[in-house]
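Think of the structure tokens as a kind of shorthand, similar to the way a musician reads notation: each symbol stands for something richer, in this case the local conformation of the backbone. In the example below we present two proteins back to back. Begin with the first one, reading the sequence and then the tokens, and try to describe in your own words what changes along the chain.
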Amino acid sequence: MLNRIVIAAAAIMMTAPLAVAGPIDSACVRSDRARGNAPLCGCIQQVANQTLSRSDQRRAASFFRNPNQAQEVRMSKSNADNAFWARYKRFAGQAEAYCR
């Protein structure tokens, strides 16, 4: 009985939308490419919450407003930018797989 309750609670928590939108969700909903697809944007935010720090999320959200900035970070020779880009690529791959 207890196992069923725990499983049900976990299922509800995993499928419930976030109460507070994060920076990626907000930027995604406002972007032209997402066309206001709130469920997709919420899914992407959930993956971001699991894989990126809040500061990385804010930086990644800026790519929605300025996609050229992502290219600049990707091409940067800075160790900090390279480390961020590795985290961002890992996040993007996981979001793509999870949020189909």
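Once you have a description of the first chain, move to the second and do the same.
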Amino acid sequence: MAKKLAGKMKLQIAAGKANPSPPVGPALGQRGINIMEFCKAFNAKTQEMEPGAPCPTVITYYQDKSFTMDIKTPPASYYLKKAAGLKPVGKRNRPRGAEAPGRETIASVTVKQVREIAEAKMKDLSANDVEAAMKIIVGSANSMGIEVKG
């Protein structure tokens, strides 16, 4: 018999760094999900990824307190900032994009780097081939003030 769906939730958690402290613990606890079981499963699934890479995760939880998780690849902006070599700034110590994208260029990436990012993100993008995925990544780069050099 199929499990009875209780709901879905989305979290963005650093790869290999899920722990019961906020924001993960309270978000799972109020929905009745076993926090330690989730943390162990998430960290085991993300151990091959780069530690600390933000992973959007869709958690489907059921009335019998069980859950499934779909871990997606890190956002394109994360890969673009890393490829451009942007240094962390600001309160949260994260790299930022341009203040005025379109008028200001803060960094540049090569077409080869864009292709690598598109290939890494291919399973999560709504593109039929790598060329279409590259266009999506170039659009993200432009909106961040990162120039793509051919």
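Compare your description with these statements about the second chain. The longest strand covers residues 5-14.
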